[in-house]
Amino acid sequence: MTPSLPERWRQHLALDRRRSVHTVRAYVATAERLLAFLEEHHGRPADAAMLAAIQQADLRAFLTSRRMDGIGNLSAARELSAVRGFLKFVGGDEARVPLLKGPRVKRGLPRPISPDEAVALAEDIAETAREGWIGARDWAVLLLLYGAGLRIGEAMGLKGDILPLGETLRVTGKRNKTRIVPLLPQVRQAIEAYVDQCPYPVSRDEPLFRGTRGGPLSPALIRRAVQGARGRLGLSDRTTPHALRHSFATHLLGRGADLRSLQELLGHASLSSTQIYTQVDAAHLLDIYRNAHPRA
User: Fold this and answer.
1) Marked catalytic residue, from 174, 177, 224, 260
2) Does one domain contain both 243 and 123?
3) pLDDT by residue (tens digit) across 52-79?
4) Can you give the pTM of this predicted structure?
């Protein structure tokens, strides 16, 4: 028996893209909701042919129905991103996905990227990549910025000699200074998944992250991918690769990390460079207070 489209999508995400259980569950649920909506919308079962002929008006109507379910702007933007990935998967290289700008996420005071926004950004970039290994590569790079606090240049400077990965990672930063950063299991798994899928051999003296032709990956490509994703998701122009590093620092500080430990993790030469995050964190907390407190 031929698997259903959502089941094939599940297998693709889990086996080919190596997405987390949470991501697979969310993306498959989106595909199932889309098919159910189209069936009711058109009065006949939704199949691959219907998906291939989907129009911008269909997607707009689907998002409207989801908004009526009570989801917010960021969730709607992520839903649209998942739909694009599903349509591209079903239609293959010839898929024509209607252009539809996602809802803009309202921003107040300058603040770090929230965990949901960081994950949404990485997921969108990975799912819109031209090839599976490129999506795995970009996913790993972004997790290094957000999950380990690396500068983009530091991530690009990693070589094959970091393999096999352990619980920590030696990073060479500015002024050729080295530091040791913890490597979260999710970050380690993302790097390993990329290495497994990379079509180029990873040798000890060569860059870990490769471009499409096998040369060193350019930071400009990651910046361009982030720029495209933030437009699709309706995120602020402040959402940049370096902002992921800022968010790593601010979230750690908010969880109780002391400034000296944070200084070491970030590779700052002086404590004054790290102290700026106390101001950012205070602004973020004030933003939350003003939006949530009934008498603010």
Assistant:
1) 174
2) yes
3) 888 888 888 888 888 888 887 778 888 8
4) 0.58
